[in-house]
Amino acid sequence: MNRRPVLIVVLIASLSAAATPAAPPGTQRAPEMKTLRVRAAATTRPALQYALMPDARDIEPGDAAALYLMAINAAARSMPNVATQPARGEGAAVWPGDLLDVPLDKLRLKQALDLLGNCAGAIDYLDRAARREHCDLQLNYRKTGMNTQMPYLNDIHYVGQILALRARVQVVSKDYAGAAHTLASGLALARHLQEHAPLVQHLVAIGNASIMLDRVQEWIESDGSPNVYWPLASLPQPLVDPGSVPGVERALVEGSLDLRKAAAGELPAEQRPQFWRRVQTVITIGPFRDQRDQSESSFVGAAIGAAAAYPQARQYLIARGVSAQRVDAMPADAVLGRFYAVKYLELFDETYKAWNLPYPESAAAMRQAQQEIVRERRAFPSNLLQVLLPAVRQARLQYARLDRKVALLRCVEVLRARAAADGAFPADLYAGGDLPVPNDPVTGKPFGYSLEAGVATIDATAPPENPCYHLIYRIELVR
Predict the structure, then answer these.
(1) What is the pLDDT of residue 303?
(2) Angle at Cα 161 formed by Cα 289 and Cα 440, nearest 5°?
């Protein structure tokens, strides 16, 4: 069933230690434009009639993990064998993801229903899993470290597409209660994926949540659709919580390398060569594979680089309370190993210290941490541990972009409600009305807004370092 393994490759690549280069000064990129044609609609009563997360009264005790894995297995049995089907053209298999980009008015309903009928067993498991208390996929990362296997990630993204397709069909069929139930299942799946999980799994969760929010946009554009301002406002904020990532990422690395012993100078002499051989192995697997060429060149010059680094390593340890006599009594490789391990742990904390702040508050600190890592790599190219330090600012931005999508949809629903009350869109989005208008989670500031010839424009400006994330919504009122 693993039709698109490139998904996880792309996600892992985003965790590479090489920072995404900022656009050159003065670079201009055309913003992404979205045009929505909507009808006026007041908010519903009850306000949460179409809730987008499972109702607490429907949550059952237990772990969802087994049900999600059963859904994957059921979907694999129900779909065509890709080994015997052409990828394109006559006779090609149709997959849920193939039907998500088809314009809603061109969706072939029978084709979609046939596909969903084949996946009925998987969908049942997914609906049940979404209404379990928690999800523990039993990742033994504290012991397996960077060798931790997550073979289900591609497939969990795939079954999320099945739910997204069902929501599309329900919106086309005006079955809004059914669509809300499906959307709740898909968003609960994303929330479950964040539990006890490393960053790469969080990125899959964000991807799953994003395709469900795309279905909410289609709902909003559907003729006669109920206003879902309050269901959107009631979603968890942040929608995917980044909170556990620093601890899990640290455990992943320390499950492979005994960094604390190395930093404390407690590695016995006979274990030090094994420790560095292990470092060389770790940096050529997983998210650090793209650094292999850089690392191999470092291996060649390790002795020269280490000799140049020794004086600074000695002074560094002395400045942090290790007596000069003790440092001088240590073998050179022990001094350097301890220095490199301490520097790694310090830089890891610098990298993640602002992670749990809202993105507008954290971006500057993460940018500074990445700049410090670049300087350290240049100063100490023989410290192979630095390859394990990820550039997390780009990943942290993805959480904020997901929350931005929720905020923009709320703004559109504000416009629909104001049009229902006043007959037209307001001249000022943030003035008047009784519905709170959110700020942009990416910038922390109000969205730009203008009204011209009855067409509303919401401008979500890009962060300075990412001009490609400039997004503009044009909303036309259909009468």
Answers:
(1) 53
(2) 80
